[in-house]
Specification:
The complex is a heterodimer of chains A (about 375) and B (about 140).
Chain A: H1 3-19, H2 24-41, H3 50-67, H4 73-81, H5 94-101, H6 108-119, H7 124-130, H8 135-148, H9 160-172, H10 181-195, H11 199-212, H12 215-218, H13 238-252, H14 259-272, H15 281-295, H16 298-312, H17 314-321, H18 331-341, H19 345-357, H20 362-380
Helix pairs in contact in A: 1-2, 1-3, 2-3, 5-6, 6-8, 6-9, 7-8, 9-10, 9-11, 10-11, 11-13, 11-14, 13-14, 14-15, 15-16, 16-17, 16-18, 17-18, 18-19, 19-20
Chain B: E1 2-11, H1 27-46, E2 50-55, E3 62-64, E4 73-75, E5 84-93, H2 96-107, E6 121-125
Antiparallel strand pairs in B: 1-5, 1-6, 2-5, 3-4
The chains are: A mainly alpha (about 375), B alpha+beta (about 140).
Chain lengths: ~375, ~140
């Protein structure tokens, strides 16, 4: 059975039910049940018309659910009495679903969960696994999200920026369970990019492709992190890089810069360097300046300081870092790195140890502890 | 089967025998320690006794209710709190003795000089659901 095909059909099938007058939350439930049935029966015999099969089964699931709700009998009869739908069956409402699932009334966690289920076609169990929460918790999160968007009109034009934000969150989560969330985010962003004519969507897709290309080199077999400068670049995925660069160039050519395009440009410059020493840090600083202008984000300011340290030397980097809020995550780690580059090993060892204590995840904590241990050992001679 | 919490403290436990802080170890010693921890969890997974393991950030804040319509009161982080939990492992084992034995093994994780840390771990049984059959 082709699980990906099933998942790709999900939003379109939900759209068909919505066009037949079913509200989104109910339609989504019915399609989820149809997906589960497909997962059980398709391995033996895949239907010739998978979409038609899903529509039929989801519609039956919907009718079954309605029949069991006596209090809604009136509406049920009205819907059942509707004539068989015509050309709307072929209309693709996937874009509308993207908007609905990322509606600004939703919290980020809810929008992510709803998008993965209704647009991505993942089961609640898969989503729960990916986010390391109990399945019941995830089921509740999704049904609350559906209630929240219950009053949003399906046809309402949505905000593309919030959709991009949701996809970015999914991508950054990486992968922990059976589902590769990074790959899923790329699939969905690719789908979104094919339906919209938007530079930032292209920029986000390029950003994801360029970072995904580095994945084989980013961790060692034991899960520990390999910093960018130490990665074996021969293990970067060149076809993903080529695609990312092409997508980005087309977007940049239209001269409507946004933050995702600027971030992708930085990733592309890294991808362009055959060895870490050949990185064009001067251009990277230029892109960080653009990014800072667009976002005014302190995190960008922090990353810019590190880039300045590479382009103009660690003293300049430390000067740039001095104006950044010291309370930011990874500020201490950046400071440790620049102090080591500047030759102040004592300060670097202390800062790395401090940074390890405040690291936001174990992989980083272990990496920073190793740095502290390495420098302390050098100091002991 | 009973679940036990093996609790590791940043502070508050009696001093370990081999108490050199981790950033003073050599990179190889750090590596060996991490490998030991991963192997230990992996082994308990394979025996069907592993439930969960998490590390905690050392920074925390105390919070309490401050009455209807008022925002909660927060206090901390306290630099000098007596007790500071670093993380835990939850195991599901047949006997209390097995829980103690495993905690003992975990406490022997290698530290500075490749020697066991002999750190103190706290072993706490979970309160379980009431049994169906009581007589």
């Amino acid at each position: 059975m082709d699980e990906l095909l099933l998942r790709e059909l999900t939003p379109a099938v939900i759209g068909v039910l919505v066009h037949r007058g079913v509200d989104f939350a109910t339609a989504e439930d019915a399609v989820q049940e149809a997906l589960i049935q497909a997962a059980l029966t398709w391995p033996d015999r895949q239907p010739a018309d998978p979409k038609g099969w899903l529509v039929t089964v989801a519609w039956r699931k919907f009718l079954d659910a309605r029949r069991s709700e006596a209090s809604r009998r009136d509406r049920e009869q009205r819907v059942e009495a509707e004539p068989p739908p015509g050309p709307t069956e072929t209309a693709d409402d996937t874009l509308q679903l993207f908007f609905l699932c990322a509606d600004p009334s939703l919290t980020p966690a809810s929008a992510v969960a709803l998008t993965l289920r209704a647009v991505g076609g993942l089961t609640t169990r898969q989503i729960a696994q990916a986010y390391l929460v109990p399945e019941v918790t995830m089921a509740q999160r999704i049904s609350r999200a559906k209630r929240t968007v219950g009053d949003v009109r399906f046809e309402e034009p949505g905000d593309l920026a919030t959709v991009l934000r949701v996809l970015y969150l999914v991508f950054n989560e990486g992968y922990t369970g059976d589902v590769d969330l990074a790959a899923e985010a790329i699939r969905l962003t690719r789908q979104l990019a094919s339906m919209t004519d938007d530079e930032e969507t292209a920029g986000l897709l390029a950003l994801m492709l360029l970072h995904h290309a580095r994945r084989p080199a980013r961790t060692r077999g034991d899960g520990s992190l390999v910093p960018l400068a130490e990665q074996d670049r021969s293990r970067w995925n060149t076809s993903l890089i080529a695609e990312g660069v092409a997508v980005l160039q087309t977007a940049l050519g239209r001269d409507r810069l946004g933050e995702f395009q600027a971030q992708a440009a930085i990733a592309a410059l890294h991808a362009d360097a055959p060895r870490a020493e050949e990185t064009d840090w001067v251009q990277i600083v230029g892109w960080y300046d653009e990014l800072l202008r667009l976002t005014e984000s302190p995190v960008v300011e922090l990353n810019r300081a590190i880039a300045v340290g590479e382009a103009d030397g660690p003293v300049a980097g430390l000067a740039a870092l001095a104006t950044v809020d010291p309370g930011l995550p990874r500020h201490t780690a950046a400071s440790a790195y620049l102090h080591e580059k500047a030759g102040d090993l004592r300060a670097a060892a202390r800062l790395y140890a401090d940074a390890a204590r405040s690291a936001p995840n174990l992989a980083e904590r272990h990496h920073l502890t190793r740095q502290a241990a390495r420098i302390s050992q050098a100091l002991r001679g | 089967m009973t679940k036990y919490l093996l609790l590791k403290h940043y502070r508050g436990a009696p001093e370990a025998v081999n108490a050199v802080p981790m950033d003073q170890w050599t990179p190889e010693e750090v590596e060996d320690h991490l490998q030991f921890m991963a192997d230990f969890a992996g082994r308990l997974e394979s025996t069907g006794e592993y439930v969960d393991g998490q590390a905690l950030s050392p920074e925390g804040t105390f919070v309490r209710y401050d009455g209807e319509g008022r925002p909660p009161v927060t206090d901390g982080p306290f630099a000098e709190t007596k007790d500071l939990i670093a993380g835990w492992m939850v195991i599901d084992v047949d006997t209390y003795e097995r829980a103690l034995a495993l905690a003992g093994e975990l406490s022997a994780a290698p530290g500075a000089g490749g020697k066991p840390i002999h750190e103190w771990l706290e072993v706490r049984p979970f309160l379980s659901a009431p049994p169906t059959v009581t007589e």
